[in-house]
Amino acid sequence: QVHLVESGGGLVQAGGSLRLSCTASGRTFSSYTVGWFRQAPGKEREFVGGISWNGGNTAYAEPVKGRFTISRDYAKNTVHLQMNNLKPEDTAGYYCAAGIGRYDNWGQGTQVTVSS
């Protein structure tokens, strides 16, 4: 088990950028796949992107491809979600999750609001 804390959310204008961070406690974090999810009011939670335990593989949902990038900083036990060219439809609570085989550790989330 790891404890995950997201940070970096905020209010930004359309076209702007934000970098979210997911910082974990626990030595096993480096062995976990990490995913980012988001949930907008009245909508279901959706997968945004993920990164493998060794950072060698990433995957992104179609709406964010080419705009969002996930990376790992093993020294800081942190995974980043760099979000560029943000759109109003990216407004949501963003959550990171981690695990092996399944996402069974979740953070509390950070809010991202993109104004038009």
Give a short overview.
The protein is 0% helix and 53% strand.
Structural class: mainly beta
| Strand percentage | over 45%
Number of helices: 0
Radius of gyration, Cα only, in angstroms? 13 Å
Helix percent band: under 10%
**Shape, please?**
globular
Account of the protein in words:
By secondary structure, the chain is mostly beta strands. The chain contains no helices and eleven strands. It has strands at 3-7, 10-13, 18-25, 33-39, 46-51, 58-60, 68-73, 78-83, 92-99, 105-106, 110-115. Strands 2, 4, 5, 6, 9, 10 and 11 form a seven-stranded mixed beta sheet that branches. A four-stranded antiparallel beta sheet has the order 1-3-8-7, with no helix packed on it. The radius of gyration is 13 Å and the shape is globular.
What descriptors fit this protein?
mainly beta, single chain, 4-stranded antiparallel β-sheet, about 120 residues, globular
Outline the fold blueprint.
Layout: E1 3-7, E2 10-13, E3 18-25, E4 33-39, E5 46-51, E6 58-60, E7 68-73, E8 78-83, E9 92-99, E10 105-106, E11 110-115
Parallel strand pairs: 2-11
Antiparallel strand pairs: 1-3, 3-8, 4-5, 4-9, 5-6, 7-8, 9-10, 9-11
